[in-house]
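user:
I keep going back and forth on a fold encoding question. Separate attempts, laid side by side, tell us more than any discussion would. Would you put together a sequence-and-structure record for a protein of your own picking? Write it directly below this note and I will take it from there.

assistant:
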Amino acid sequence: MGEQQPKASMNYAVTVVRQDENRAVARARGHELTLNVKKGDGAAGFNAAETLLAALGTCLLTNINAIAAKMRLQIDEARVEFTAVRQDNPPLLTHVQYNLILSSPEPPEKLEELYRLAVKWGTVANTVTQGIQADGRLTIVA
């Protein structure tokens, strides 16, 4: 028997449109995010690698919020700081390091459990750490 694929429970749709040689705009659900698409220049916004790191941070903080509420934990401040190493050939992030910083009066063991669950249930966190098969195609419009 073939391997059974997990059932998809949520779909995402994002469109990224090049505005000019420096900028692109990502759109989803009525929101916009300006992105930098000129290599070596970050003046127009986040570049692709920074956007990936921001997505990972957003994923972790989303779960921190949701799980802390379920666990009835008080979180006064939460932030994620990233560093990443990029190689040139082929272009690839070879190492990502992050530090989740929580300010809370809760016991450390509760916060450690919160962190463990936030990573475990993170869509982007799991995608980045476990990898993904991305399928693409080219459509040419004349």
